[in-house]
Specification:
The protein is built from 9 helices and 10 strands. By secondary structure, the chain is of the alpha/beta class.
Length: about 240
């Protein structure tokens, strides 16, 4: 469902990512792991079509993200890190606008709005200006827009960054529920997140994939932190 084939992104002589290859099969929750600045966000932007790679191919559900952009986009729900929202709008007006922009008919849009408001627990702030919401609620609004068109693939970039422990727990519960019907690629550098919700790990460091395997294989020896340090030190 998600495939990176030799993805590279250069800014002049600097390679943000280089020769990134991995596949995420249908129904899997994969953690895209790595330290800050490793290339996680750049890879995700290439997978979603937000950035064009210098070399390589990104595919979603078999659709080339650059060659068949609309078909790929229809399959993706994307939550970028610090996702942009219209601060003067309410969650209600923002989500309605996003649904109409995606071409949802009136009945489908109503049904999907009801669904995402319930799933993301937004009813208490539905009519409140987004600028007045806490970071946790803004993150929920971002998640709601990613889910609105019922995509088969979710690409989530640091979905719990900056949240308090209760908010992190709520987001993890939501991702676990969604994993029953979605293929999910979750970017994070939080090891507890990986163990809590993922079954597979793709580890990137200095723009290159240094590990691709199961969570159990990643945690071989029982210490994820030690393995994290080992992979980054060896790759360096």
């Amino acid at each position: 469902m998600i495939e990176a084939i030799g993805l590279s992104k250069y800014y002049g002589p600097f390679a943000a990512i280089k020769d990134v290859d991995f596949k995420i099969p249908r129904g899997q929750v994969a953690a895209f792991l790595g330290p800050n600045g490793a290339g996680k966000s750049t890879t995700m932007k290439c997978l979603t079509g937000f950035l064009a790679p210098t070399h390589g191919t990104a595919k979603i559900g078999g659709h080339d993200v650059l060659e068949d952009r609309m078909a790929a986009a229809n399959m993706i729900g994307y939550l970028p890190e610090n996702g942009p929202l219209y601060a003067e709008m309410t969650p209600q007006s923002f989500l309605k606008y996003m649904g109409e922009a995606r071409g949802l008919d009136k009945k489908t849009l109503k049904d999907r709005l009801d669904y995402v408001v319930e799933q993301c627990a937004l009813s208490g702030v539905y009519g409140k200006a987004i600028s007045k919401l806490s970071k946790g609620y803004r993150q929920r609004v971002g998640m709601a827009q990613a889910l609105l068109h019922d995509p088969q693939v979710l690409i989530l970039d640091e979905p719990t960054a900056g949240l308090d422990p209760n908010q992190i727990h709520q987001v993890r519960e939501l991702i676990t529920r969604l994993s029953k019907t979605k293929t999910i690629l979750l970017s994070t550098h939080i090891l507890q997140e990986v163990e809590a919700i993922a079954s597979h790990v793709v580890f990137i460091f200095n723009g290159r994939i240094v590990f691709d395997g199961t969570v159990a294989e990643m945690a071989s020896g029982g210490d994820m932190e030690a393995r994290f340090r080992e992979l980054t030190t060896a790759a360096a």
